[in-house]
Amino acid sequence: MSDEIFDVVQIGYGPVGQALAAMLGQRGHNVAVFERHSSLYALPRAGHFDHEIMRIFQSVGCAEQIEEDVFPATKYQWRNGKGETLITFDWDQVGVSGWMSDYLMFQPYLENALHHAVQQYPTVSVNHGWEAVEITTHADHVSLELRQYMVDAQGRQQATGETKTVKGRYLVGADGANSFVRQHLNLPWTDLGFNESWVVLDLKQKGPVHYEFDNGQICDPKRPLCLFQLGKSHRRFEYMVMPGEDRETLLRPEHAWETIRPWMAPDDADLIRQIIYTFKSGLASQWSKDRVFLVGDAAHLMPPFLGQGMCSGVRDAKNLAWKLDLVLKDKADAALLETYQQERSPHVKEIIDLAVQVGKISCMVDPEAAEARDQAFRDGAVPPPPPFPILRDGLIDHSAEAHSVTGELGPQGQVRHLGKEGRCDDVLGLGWQLISNFDVDELLSDGSRELLQLLETRVIRPIPVVDEPNVADAVVDIDGTYFRYFSANNVSAILVRPDFYVFGGVQDKADIDALILRLRDGFSKRND
Ligand SMILES: Cc1cc2nc3c(=O)[nH]c(=O)nc-3n(C[C@H](O)[C@H](O)[C@H](O)COP(=O)(O)OP(=O)(O)OC[C@H]3O[C@@H](n4cnc5c(N)ncnc54)[C@H](O)[C@@H]3O)c2cc1C
Known about the structure:
This protein is an alpha+beta fold.
């Protein structure tokens, strides 16, 4: 056994593990990743992600590569079996994160881009063909036993007989829905209901194919189905396994082509995968134990009707990464890590509940119930979807004066600074941001200054384009994002965390110092 103690040992190199490895590598930490597959997984699962996730990909330097194949979808519709539109989701807008609201992608391309991002960081080693088999926790580190696998000439995974043990100050289980880490540590799991099987077809198009109805769900009680583009070159169809249907028949290519005949024929595309998934939902009620943490599907599972499973895992990674960074650099006490589950679990629970609810609506196979549903949509009796969840617990401003933007995602606009122009994170850098429409400098106490310095906070005062000539070193709010944000939210300064969530905001500039001191209290409360 080597004596080296990695900062973080990670099990699993799906999209969530990749994102976490890139974030930790970017901050200079020694990370060893172990993945039981012998290479990147070549087939897609997820197809959709949103603006927040694209900003996270931007933060690890792979947004440009991802953009090459993704498809910014402009709308997503639900129709019934008669072709009537039940609801339209308007995605044709730039999200608060500075990227288009929603994207459709081919997951293997995304994973390639994330892998390239990880490879930029020399402190991260990715070890394929190693399966985690035993975890032992010690006072100051965790040790992990691994068994090596090789792919034989027939393409089968075979144990080589090689084993090794590695140590990390922290261990992260990014090892998917059947998480070895979760089960090995007996971390309890709550089943949140839902159990429906769907056939999933992935196709590689032979040329561009577009339909009037390109992306959406057909809530037909005879066979609920959804179709959408997977990036620029692939397409997905998913349809429900109906009561009494024979799985073997459903997995025959001729059955697939017959089902999607209204849209596609073998001349249009190659069928690259046909599989049955059983969609379930669940949540770990404990996301960590001692020095071990769960991220992604290891911690939560949801049916894919909102396209948010991977997105939620990437949010976990972003949340955990900046906290581990501060703790590993001795800038914060390990107690900060307790806010990880506190923040992430309720956020993802809201999304799971909504995904289950939406799934039940679209999976209706009783014609009468489906007709009643359609009528409710026609009558406008279906309430609009709730707003996307925000952070409500953890390290956010909990004071009586907390501004309403607290816990929401902070904005990213296009800025110009010292001749450089682009999205704010690219131009000014990542990490904590104090964004204001006034000069904060003279309003800060020594305590606030110290904290901002410790956290390497970017102090940003975007000014409107019209004022540009008067201010040297200005950060110019080229597209007016910050001006609009401040006026729409009646706020004049916000303190934004490295995961882009707003710690808190103030309307009156005289309150800015107190806000920063409340953040300091938030950190020190966890040190007591
Ligand atoms: C049909 C379908 C459609 C979906 N659509 C969307 C969507 O549109 N948008 C969205 O956001 N999400 C979607 N999801 C969900 C999304 O695919 C998952 O949430 C996401 O892949 C989870 O990523 P992960 O990295 O946590 O886990 P995984 O991708 O499962 O990766 C876990 C990795 O850990 C490895 N591993 C496991 N055990 C061990 C071990 N003992 N040792 C070493 N390695 C190990 C595995 O080999 C695997 O590579 C969809 C899912 C399905 C099934």
